[in-house]
């Protein structure tokens, strides 16, 4: 039976080189046209230029990396993101197993889901007192020496908390706690907790534990020094780099001695469709083989 559509416009996002994406796009499109024919299906993988051309629902086919990429590209328009996992565990996906994809689509179109807001963090780079770059991140923001050591002072609301002489430092959201932060032995935080996590990267000083701070705090990172070898070239910007600022492994900019990076909670949020209230715990169980 055809029903009134809850979404006027939907779109798909995926990496074309990932297997089964075209198969599932066509299968889901066929289902939508059959049961919700008034829903307009926009061209896949097309990032809108304005709100008028943006989808209400973005169906992402792929793993967490693809979902993260889609969230970054579409976040100015704030569509509901519905991830169908074609990767590994899929912490960010709404449905993990292919056999449940169409059932999940039906739940979303029949409004049997919760819209869960995920916090973004914003990094602003200041050089000689002038802001020269800013970017939002869903997962994390990192300062990293690509081939050596960097000295970084870490401050929370102006109070010194760490001094790192190592590979760098990572500032994560709760959403990103299961990504790079986890690989760096940082804590796992439930995604509905709005906070920031400071995790050192290969510090040569006495190791210090990660620090979880409230969302309304301000983190300041000061690049105090590093050996300039000019080893790398950032192709997108044609910058020579040793130490870089990276947001969600997408945007990268070369840093200089004396740079300051201010990190705060962003004014923007990203909405994910959640079908199962215990989805996060199920993902943990699958990832770590909990019984």
Structure characteristics:
elongated; alpha+beta
Descriptive overview:
With 291 residues, the protein is α+β, with helices and mostly antiparallel strands. 17% of the residues lie in helices and 41% in strands. It has 5 helices and 18 strands. Strands 1, 2, 3, 4, 5, 6, 8, 9, 13 and 18 form a 10-stranded mixed beta sheet that branches. It has a 6-stranded antiparallel beta sheet with strand order 12-11-10-7-16-17, with no helix packed on it. A two-stranded antiparallel sheet has the order 14-15. A hairpin with a 3-residue loop joins β16 and β17. The longest helix has 15 residues. The radius of gyration is 20 Å and the shape is elongated. The termini are far apart. The mean pLDDT is 91.
Summarize the topology.
Elements: E1 9-14, H1 21-35, E2 40-41, E3 57-62, H2 64-74, E4 80-85, H3 101-109, E5 114-127, E6 130-137, E7 140-145, E8 150-156, E9 159-166, E10 168-173, H4 180-183, E11 195-201, E12 211-214, E13 219-226, E14 232-234, E15 239-241, E16 243-247, E17 251-254, E18 260-274, H5 279-288
Parallel strand pairs: 1-2, 1-3, 3-4, 4-18
Antiparallel strand pairs: 5-6, 5-18, 7-10, 7-16, 8-9, 8-13, 10-11, 11-12, 13-18, 14-15, 16-17
């Amino acid at each position: 039976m055809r029903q009134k559509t809850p979404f006027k416009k939907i779109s798909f996002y995926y990496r074309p080189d990932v297997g089964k994406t075209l198969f599932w796009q066509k299968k889901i499109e066929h289902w939508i046209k059959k049961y919700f024919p008034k829903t307009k299906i926009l061209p896949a993988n097309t990032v809108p230029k304005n709100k008028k051309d943006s989808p209400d629902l973005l169906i992402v086919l792929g793993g967490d990396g693809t979902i993260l990429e889609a969230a970054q590209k579409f976040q100015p328009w704030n569509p509901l993101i519905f991830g169908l996992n074609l990767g590994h565990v899929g912490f960010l996906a709404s449905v993990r197993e292919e056999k449940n994809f169409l059932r999940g689509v039906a739940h979303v179109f029949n409004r049997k889901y919760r819209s869960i807001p995920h916090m973004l963090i914003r990094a602003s780079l200041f050089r000689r007192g002038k802001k020269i770059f800013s970017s939002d991140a869903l997962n994390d923001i990192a300062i990293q020496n690509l081939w050596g050591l960097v000295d970084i002072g870490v401050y929370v609301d102006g109070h010194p908390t760490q001094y790192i002489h190592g590979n760098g430092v990572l500032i994560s959201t709760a959403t990103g706690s299961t990504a790079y932060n986890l690989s760096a032995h940082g804590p796992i935080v439930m995604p509905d907790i709005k906070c920031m996590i400071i995790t050192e990267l290969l510090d040569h000083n006495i190791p210090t534990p990660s620090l979880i701070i409230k969302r309304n705090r301000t983190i300041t990172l000061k690049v105090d020094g590093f050996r300039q070898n000019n080893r790398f070239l950032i192709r997108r910007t044609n910058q020579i780099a040793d130490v870089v600022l990276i947001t969600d492994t997408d945007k990268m900019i070369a840093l200089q001695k004396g740079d300051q990076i201010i990190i705060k909670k962003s004014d923007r949020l990203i909405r994910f469709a959640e079908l199962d209230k215990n989805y996060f715990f199920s993902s943990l169980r699958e990832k770590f083989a909990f019984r």
